Amino acid sequence: MKQRVSSKVVKEAALDKLKERGVTIQDIADIVYDMQVPYNDKLTMEQCIDSVYKVLEKREIQNAILVGVELDVLAEKNLLSEPLQSLIEKDEGLFGIDETVALGSVLGYGSIAITTFGYLDKHKVGIIKKLDTKTGDGGVHTFLDDLVAGIAASASGRIAHRLRDLEDKEDELNFIDEEKIERENVS
Ligand code: MG
């Protein structure tokens, strides 16, 4: 029986793949900031970077990166069999598996992550745009652009839900305060 692959090995491999393919944590955090700052004027870049790291801790996301980048690299080296080679190399619009793999990695982060993914897929912000237009210079990034959109969308969803949790907690505290004041006024 083959030995189990440790989480640490998978995580490091996924992070290395992103780096090797020219995507930095900062590139992804920049997208997260753009997506979330309209809803949260106190948002900092540190929070975005932190959220990207947290998302990259998830095994589903790491696995998606490993699968997607591997296929991009094999297509770049012309090592896939036809017709898959052409479908991935030419980033054939109807292929769709690149989006499906990335979308699958987003599902754990709720509806905000899913709608943000849809937006990024359509509007191609920041590094996603660069990767998308890189096709043709020998580099294949058919999966990578969607993976980056997936990571950014998950990190955005995570921030949005955490902000909501904080606001709910504040509301609760304010409510308790008001109750206390009322009680004190009565007595
Ligand atoms: Mg794609």
Describe the protein's architecture and organization.
With 187 residues, this protein is mainly α. The protein has a single domain (7-186), classed as PgpA-like (YutG-like), CATH 1.10.3760.10. The protein is 73% helix and 0% strand. The protein has nine helices and no strands. The protein has helices spanning 7-20, 25-36, 45-55, 59-76, 84-89, 97-106, 110-123, 127-134, 144-186. Helix 6 packs parallel to helix 9. The longest helix has 43 residues, at 144-186. It is elongated. The N and C termini lie far apart (73 Å). The protein binds magnesium ion (MG). Residues 91, 98, 142, 145-146 line the site of magnesium ion.
Describe the secondary-structure layout.
Layout: H1 7-20, H2 25-36, H3 45-55, H4 59-76, H5 84-89, H6 97-106, H7 110-123, H8 127-134, H9 144-186
Helix pairs in contact: 1-4, 2-3, 2-9, 3-9, 4-6, 4-9, 6-9, 7-9, 8-9
Bound molecules: magnesium ion.
